[in-house]
Design goal:
Blueprint lengths: L1 E8 L4 E3 L9 E8 L6 E5 L4 E2 L7 E2 L4 E8 L7 E7 L2
Parallel strand pairs: 1-3, 2-4, 5-8
Antiparallel strand pairs: 3-7, 4-6, 7-8
C-alpha cells in the first residue's frame, strides 16, 4: 500500500472534487489548517463514500482537520473518505 501525507494551509475555499493517480489500495492523509483568517468552505467529491459522519461544509477558523482517503480501485466511486476536525 502506498501512503502519502501532506499539509494544506488554507487562505480561501478548498475543493476536493477530483483526484488523480488512482490505483487500488492507495491512501492519502491530508492535514488542513485554517489558521489565517476566518473559517474555510470545503467542497468534497460527491462520488466519494464517506465513512462515519457526512463531510462538513466548512472548517472553523483556527482549527485543523484531517482528511483520509483510501482508493480501492481506479474510479472516484472507489474512494472511501474520513474527515475529522478539532471541536
Amino acid at each position: 500500500m502506498t501512503l502519502a501525507y501532506q499539509t494544506i494551509s488554507t487562505t480561501a475555499q478548498i475543493d476536493f472534487t477530483t483526484t488523480s493517480n488512482r490505483i487500488a489500495v492507495r491512501s492519502c492523509v491530508t492535514q488542513i489548517e485554517a489558521y489565517a483568517g476566518g473559517s474555510r468552505n470545503l467542497t468534497f467529491n460527491a462520488s466519494w463514500v464517506p465513512l462515519g459522519v457526512v463531510f462538513p461544509a466548512s472548517l472553523s477558523a483556527n482549527k485543523v482537520g484531517i482528511l483520509s482517503l483510501i482508493s480501492l480501485g481506479t474510479a472516484e466511486t472507489d474512494i472511501r473518505a474520513v474527515f475529522t476536525a478539532q471541536p
